[in-house]
Automatic annotation (TrEMBL):
It comes from the Bacteria. This is Sugar transferase. Belongs to the bacterial sugar transferase family. It comes from Methylophilus aquaticus. Keywords: Membrane, Transferase, Transmembrane, Transmembrane helix. The chain crosses the membrane at residues 6-29.
Length: 190
């Protein structure tokens, strides 16, 4: 209950403070490439239930929905990016619409990052470790400890650590570390 109240308070404050940035990002995406500015990605939520998560579209329309680490294995992953795609990914601006998912209750500010519907290996490992019982988050312990640069088993181990040790203080630590890492652009693969 306290976590949900914190989520709502931080999300409302975040939307108010970040509204100009959200509006500018929307316009940048909309004006720089054809297609919608928002992309609704099918993700795996709490108890492995599917939900639609919004992001600012950083990829060209028609790009397959695959995980970033798999996209980076393509011959030229940058070919999929929109003109502003790299910038909004490096600055994490593409993640701002996820505040809607927190308001709606599909996500939390802190939790394991929601898997894509087709990341069977990640979903299976999280289910084995009971991580699937957590609401996914905009940021999480695995995010501040390597993001997409760490292998899936290590990511799930970090998610498992969060499951076993979650407290309000750990959530606040993760939020602060996330802000620092975003400002430094640490562990950004694209």
């Amino acid at each position: 209950m306290l976590k949900r109240l914190l989520d709502l308070a931080l999300t409302i404050i975040g939307i108010i403070l970040l509204f100009p940035l959200i509006a500018i990002t929307y316009l940048l995406v909309k004006l720089s490439s054809p297609g919608p500015a928002l992309f609704w990605s099918q993700r795996v939520g709490c108890e492995n239930q599917l939900f639609l998560m919004p992001k600012f579209r950083s990829m060209r329309t028609g790009t397959p929905q695959i995980a970033t680490h798999l996209m980076n294995q393509q011959a030229n992953p940058d070919a999929f990016l929109t003109p502003v795609g790299s910038f909004i990914r490096k600055t994490s601006l593409d993640e701002l619409p996820q505040l809607w998912s927190v308001l709606k209750g599909d996500m939390s500010i802190v939790g394991p990052r929601p898997a894509l519907f087709n990341q069977d290996d990640l979903i299976q490992l999280r289910t084995q470790m009971n991580v699937h019982t957590l609401k996914p988050g905009i940021t999480g312990w695995a995010q501040v400890n390597g993001r997409d640069e760490i292998p899936i088993p290590q990511k799930v181990a970090l998610d498992g650590y969060y499951l076993q040790n979650q407290t309000l203080w750990l959530d606040l630590k993760i939020i602060i570390l996330t802000i620092i890492k975003v400002l430094r652009r640490d562990n950004i693969t694209h």
